[in-house]
Each structure stands twice: as C-alpha cells, then as structure tokens.
Amino acid sequence: MFLAQLSKQSTNDFVGDFSTKEEVFYYIPRQDDVTLGGTAQVDRWDTEVDPKDSKEIWERAVGILPSLKEAKILKQWVGLRPQRSKGIRVEAETMNFGTTKVRVVHNYGHGGAGITLHWGCAEDAAKLVQKELSTPPQARL
Asked: How far is CA 19 from CA 24, 34, 38, 72, in A?
C-alpha cells in the first residue's frame, strides 16, 4: 500500500475500488493524502514490500488517476494479504487445545483489498464475539 501526498486538485477526484477478476486496486482519499493499494495473491504470507507489486500498484493508480503522477509517496507498507479460495472467513468455531475446548471467532482471508473490507467484517466478527460471550458455558459433569 502507498500513502501519497495529494495536491488540492486531486482530492476532488473520485473514490473507488477498481478491482477486476484479474487485478485488485483501490483508492481511499483523505484530506491531505490518499491510500492506494491492492493485490490478489493466494497463499502469500510475507510482509515485506515487494518492488514489483509497488510498481504495478503505482502504475495502475496513475493510469486511473493521472493527477497522482506528481504526488509525493510518504510511506509504503504491507499487511498480511493472503486471499482464500473460499472467500473471507468470518465465523465462530469450537477448537480443541489438548483437553480444553475454546470458542474462536475467525476473521481473515480478505486478500489484498482488506483495508476496504475490514470495517464491515470487524463489525460482523464483534457481533459473533458478543453472541459467544452471552451464551452460558455448558457444564462439564
């Protein structure tokens, strides 16, 4: 992902997710900067900035929003971005840890556009946690 300094003119450009089946790209403007990003990489778990990915994201951004061409890149970072073949997983599950059973709420698999999805998914996961906390534990006799 990139954080880039915007000119006042470019803040009036449109907001959006320009993803296709083959490519993921999003543009999230704020008052003085913009977050750019997007990758679709199944089973990729490293957190190092990849110069090839960065170049592809930047070129897509400038192709869609030419006003970014002169923007100053403030920061680059990578989050975990693996994409699940079955889609995002937001659900509760009972897992066994030795003889102990624990209820776990999963929220992962967002892929390279997770920053555009995480708010809604976090809300759904929080509701699942609340449901789990409000369910009394079953007695062990």
From this structure: 4, 17, 8, 24
